[in-house]
Design a protein that fits this description.
alpha/beta, Urease, subunit C, domain 1, TIM Barrel, seven-stranded mixed beta sheet, 12 helices, about 35% helix
């Protein structure tokens, strides 16, 4: 897109025009404290040298060689850390359009919601997200628009439509039978499921999302009930991995979690009712758990106002605390954990509110930060690009005034955001 069009687009949206880092531009950031998420330590008085969109060096300020003419950014009174990663988002979702209220929202309108949500998410310090489901491939369009510089937002890995059985959590069960509506993500049987994976990949999905069990915010099913069979999930995983895509499985119930892990999925989303067998399997197979343990608060406090179905609120009352307790069990049981919040169920930009719950249910502040940085980068398949302040990686950098390694709730008060060498918030 030409500069004139970028400026017009920005003016219409009421935001600053997005920009890309000049390949030759050099920036030096002086950090009072720097969180080394790889070592799990906090370093003092460090200088980060950035060329273009990448970090070229990180080290003590006393010995740093700052190139002549470099732009200097003084964060000497703050704590600097890598941009955060949320592995379970729905940027095109509006949390106040739940249940039947959502039926009046077109896929195009939802994608436009995503523009605002993407900016809020990035300004909150989340420089990378994995978007696990959107109608009309709205997340793919949003990803491409951000990459092209049309709008400001985080790096995105997208799923397109979530894949599931007819009448299941990934279908649309709010419409009457005479409408004869089936979600585009529905696929029954192993070969139809394989074909659906191919369709998602064809139209731009980076990751495949499946619904292995029922859900909380869907009509007519139970979170603990398994939906896809082991055979169907094995077909999906085999096809996705063959095409170079990882698989994220929405799975609340014990049998769906077990079979999804046995099928070889890369992550279990929610994992609310995981049992000892599921934790053991996840640990042995190296399957990540992505457990959204903050949004229970929003559902129970704001769900009725947002239009969520009474049955959904009733289901959340049963499952919410169980999920939090099982988060503790899974973490202490040695399962790998990555940060994911289900944003879009609650307001975008509030992602960091989950850190407090991760600490309350067993993690240290550093472990919670690692879940949202190096662990998430590993699950994403982007360890070489994001997740730590290391030479060669994208200059995705945030800062806070306090010390998040001592209290990760400081991450709800981000004061500085840089993505790819460009300052987004200062």
């Amino acid at each position: 897109m030409k500069l004139k069009h970028l400026l017009i687009s920005a003016a219409v949206m009421g935001v600053a025009a997005p920009s890309f880092a000049d390949a030759g531009k050099v920036v030096a950031i002086r950090a009072g404290k720097l969180v080394d998420v790889v070592a799990g330590t906090v370093l003092k008085d460090q200088t980060i040298i950035i060329t273009g969109e990448r970090i070229t060096s990180v080290g003590p300020s006393a010995s740093a060689k700052v190139p002549s003419g470099a732009q200097l950014i003084d964060l000497s009174s703050q704590t600097v850390l890598p941009g955060l990663i949320d592995m379970h988002t729905h940027l095109t979702g509006d949390p106040y359009l739940g249940g039947y209220n959502a039926l009046g929202v077109s896929d195009t309108r939802a994608a436009l919601y995503g523009v605002r949500a993407a900016r809020k998410t990035l300004e909150a310090g989340f420089t990378t997200v994995r978007n696990v489901g959107a109608g009309g491939f709205g997340d793919v369009a949003l990803r491409d628009a951000i990459n092209d510089g049309d709008f400001i937002g985080p790096r995105m890995r997208t799923a397109g439509y979530a894949i599931g059985i007819q009448g299941g959590h990934c279908d649309e069960n709010l419409l009457p039978a005479d409408m004869k509506f089936t979600s585009r993500g529905v696929a029954d049987g192993p070969w139809e499921a394989r074909a659906k994976v191919r369709e998602m990949a064809k139209y731009g999905a980076d990751v495949i999302k499946i619904c292995a069990s029922g859900g909380v915010l869907s009509k007519g099913d139970e979170p603990g009930a398994q939906q896809y069979t082991l055979e169907e999930m094995q077909a999906i995983v085999g096809e996705a991995h063959k095409l170079g895509r990882k698989v994220a499985a929405h799975a609340h119930g014990t049998s769906s979690i077990r079979d999804a892990i046995l099928a070889g999925v890369d992550s279990i989303e929610h994992a609310s009712l995981i049992d000892d067998e599921g934790i053991k399997l996840a640990r042995e197979k190296g399957t990540y758990l992505v457990m959204d343990i903050y949004n229970d608060d929003f559902i129970l406090q704001e769900g009725e106002k947002a239009g969520m179905l009474p049955e959904s609120i009733a289901k959340e009352k049963v499952i919410g605390q169980l999920q939090r307790d099982n988060f503790r069990k899974a973490f202490t049981g040695g399962a790998k954990m990555a940060f994911g919040t289900d944003s879009g169920v609650y307001p975008h930009g509030d992602n960091a509110k989950q850190f407090a719950y991760m600490i309350r249910y067993g993690m240290t502040s550093m472990q919670a930060i690692q879940a949202a940085t190096i662990n998430a980068a590993d699950l994403l398949g982007w360890k070489d690009r994001v997740g730590s302040l290391t030479a060669g990686k994208y200059a995705d950098i945030i800062a806070v005034k306090g010390d998040p390694a001592e209290n990760a709730t400081e991450l709800t008060k981000v004061t500085f955001v840089m993505k790819g060498g460009e300052v987004i918030r200062k």
